[in-house]
Design goal:
about 290 residues; 15 helices; 4 strands
Length: about 290
Amino acid sequence: MPDRRIILEGISPDAFTTEADRKALAALERVPLLPAVLRKFSELGLDRWFYCLNMAMSVRCGPKQYHTIYGIFQECCEVLDVPEPELYLTSNPFPNAFAGGVERPFVTLRNSMVDTLTDEELYHLIGHELGHIKSGHMLYHMVGRLLVPLLQALGRRLPILGDAAAIGLIFAFYEWMRQSEISCDRAGLLVSQSLDTSLHANLRLTSGPNRFSSEENIEAFMDQARAYQEASPLDQLGKVILYFTSTWAFTHPMPVYRAQQLEKWAETGDYRKILHGIYPRIEQSAAV
């Protein structure tokens, strides 16, 4: 736990966006069907619908409502230099959190997620979600979550029936969404400012809440993550098969892969440079 978190004033999302994220986004934006899907999303008012649904099913946090969580949230916004979005807490037994809202951004934490993580680990989780908002991911993420219904609304056949345009868009969307998660894991680390804390948060997200959590071992988890990345040729083939049978449609990368990628980034020195004030700033990015 840092004695005092460093405020990353004016930090640009370029500071934590991966090159793979940039390439995946560029590939997504070249898909010809994308503009029609975006128009349909707007026509159907799905952003407002999702915002109202979240408000109806969650409790908004503030100075008079869950003030401890709200205080952590405020500090996270200050560290990452993000205008404060709305914060909600909702009941769900499956630990998770998400950012939503294009016109009115918000972050929603599930109660099971809050129960699973320590206060320090919440900084990583909230920093990750704020990373999506700061990076301007919300429109594409919202569309990505509703992609199949939007394609159906456009009269497209489901991918299994062979609509090449729909298949291309779905593959491009899911690839970018996975890559954007790696970028925002970095944002979570920049807010937690402790690699051990962020890796522990990843471990707990992977194992979920359980009564043996006191027996967790981060070193063993990272050994597992490295072994996954350094798999034998036969296991690498298994990962290829796994991708084409299921993981191509995942919106998030494999948890052990995320942990290993975060560790690698921290070890490159880029993370430490940012904490020492060496990072691209928003005004510099806008001038490019």
